[in-house]
């Protein structure tokens, strides 16, 4: 059997009932605020549901009732997922190069440019920048995505561990780990010499394969199956990690990522994940 989960910030109950009827639901319940679960639905109605949800700005997901529910780990990308910005773009803004760097970032997230190559090109543009710019970005521009704190609080209350794995930089993941009490992190380290960025990263690049490997390594450390993990992201660099997890979530993501994910959240916040975890 299949369940259809609907979520929206401003939803008319009549619209929810209409979509449930179109999908052939035999029961509706509400696992949390702004979320509805329609039971016993038919996948044959997916095209109609998609059109109705798009019209009314609702997120939806068809998920089998027998999917893994004993989730023990939530793994998340950082830039444009846990937080609202792309840190490297904002750092580049301090050099007056945001447009140039943003264009490379967008191409990489769409999967049009190899990630290690794109990172090297972007970081090289930062050469000579005072390292204090990193703290300015953190203090002045970094904000959590809507629903992030609620999602993390819900996960922590349920005993679910958290992993922040990023193609961004340790300067930010280290601070977010302490601030948000995250359990595991992985990111790239910018090289700094005499207080200036050198335009290079230290060590191997955290690309799509490294993200996947970190997810699998943390699962092994926790003694759990990857099917007990949720992985979420927004760009092509997240797809390998998302594919390895039991539930993949595209958060305000590029089209190619939305198409391949189990769940796409385009309207509600990150706390929309909790509706799929019975939290």
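^ structure tokens above, recovered residues below v
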């Amino acid at each position: 059997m299949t369940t259809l989960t609907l979520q929206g910030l401003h939803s008319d109950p009549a619209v929810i009932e209409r979509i449930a009827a179109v999908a052939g639901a035999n029961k509706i319940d509400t696992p949390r605020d702004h979320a509805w679960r329609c039971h016993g639905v038919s996948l044959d109605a997916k095209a109609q549901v998609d059109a109705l949800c798009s019209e009314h700005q609702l997120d939806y997901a068809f998920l089998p009732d027998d999917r893994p529910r004993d989730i023990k780990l939530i793994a998340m990308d950082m830039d444009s997922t846990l937080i609202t910005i792309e840190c490297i773009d904002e750092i580049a803004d301090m050099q007056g190069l945001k447009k140039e760097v943003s264009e490379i970032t967008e191409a990489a997230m769409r999967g049009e440019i190899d990630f290690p190559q794109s990172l090297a090109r972007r970081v090289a543009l930062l050469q000579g920048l005072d390292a204090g710019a990193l703290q300015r970005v953190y203090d002045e521009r970094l904000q959590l995505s809507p629903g992030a704190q609620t999602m993390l609080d819900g996960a922590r209350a349920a005993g679910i561990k958290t992993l922040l794995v990023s193609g961004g930089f340790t300067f930010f993941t280290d601070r977010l780990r302490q601030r948000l009490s995250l359990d595991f992190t992985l990111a790239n380290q910018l090289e700094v010499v005499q207080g200036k960025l050198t335009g290079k990263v230290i060590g191997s690049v955290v690309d799509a394969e490294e993200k996947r490997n970190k997810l699998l390594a943390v699962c092994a450390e926790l003694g759990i199956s990857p099917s007990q993990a949720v992985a979420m992201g927004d760009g092509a660099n997240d797809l390998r990690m998302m594919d390895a997890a039991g539930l993949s979530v595209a958060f305000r993501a590029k089209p190619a990522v939305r198409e391949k994910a189990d769940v796409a959240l385009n309207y509600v916040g990150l706390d929309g994940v909790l509706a799929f975890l019975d939290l």
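The two ends are 21 Å apart (CA to CA).
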